[in-house]
Amino acid sequence: MSKLIELTPVQTVACCSPLLSEPITAATAERISPLLKALADPVRLRLLSLVAAHEGGQACVCDLNEAFDLSQPTISHHLKVLHEAGLLERTKRGTWVYYAVRREALGDLATLLGAVPA
Predict the structure, then answer these.
(1) How many CB atoms are closer than 10 A to CB 4?
(2) Of the candidates 63, 57, 61, 68, which has an alpha carbon nearest to the alpha carbon of residue 101?
(3) CB 28, CB 16: distance < 8 Å
(4) Which position has the higher pLDDT, 109 or 69?
(5) The pTM is what?
(6) CA dist., res. 68 & res. 65, Å (int)
(7) Could you tell me which residue, 36 or 51, shows the higher pLDDT?
(8) How far apart are CA 106 and CA 118, in angstroms?
(9) Would 91 be classed as within a structural domain?
(10) What is the DSSP letter of 66?
(11) CATH of the domain at 48
(12) DSSP tag of 57
């Protein structure tokens, strides 16, 4: 009996051909959509950008609060969604959780989309 391998959305993107080369299957689209859904929210897209551009490439919620008119728990929720989608890594330091962008995830997303012809 063969065993099915479960891939995260990021791993699924990494193994797929660019969208412009050939159509993706329905199953592949189902596996990739959580990654794209996580990025579809303007707050999460901006958070990802802020974390990536932050000094040292890491940021905690305390570093990000001032950029938004949102509560700390709301920002933490959005960071959690990005982490669960595979776009952010997190490490705990004392009472703070620091986030860093998974650069390979961004590269995988770029691979999926491919170069768009003019």
Answers:
(1) 5
(2) 57
(3) yes
(4) 69
(5) 0.73
(6) 6
(7) 51
(8) 22
(9) yes
(10) G
(11) 1.10.10.10
(12) G
List the single range of 11-25, 49-63, 78-92, 97-111 with lowest mean pLDDT: 11-25
96, containing H or E segment: strand 96-101
Residue 41 in domain: yes
Q: Which residues, in sequence order, are bridge partners of residue 90?
A: 99
Whole-number Å distance between alpha carbons of 9 and 33: 7
**Could you give the number of structural domains in the chain?**
1
Q: Exposed, middle or buried, 86 (CB in 10 Å: 0-12/13-18/19+)?
A: buried
* Residue 117 in domain: no
- Whether residue 32 contacts residue 24, with contact meaning beta carbons closer than 8 Å, is answered with yes
Domain assignment present for 118 = no
Distance CA 13, CA 28 (A): 8
What domain range is 79 assigned to? Answer: 26-112
DSSP string for residues in 17-34: PPTTTSPPPHHHHHHHHH
CA–CA separation, 112 and 75 (whole Å): 28
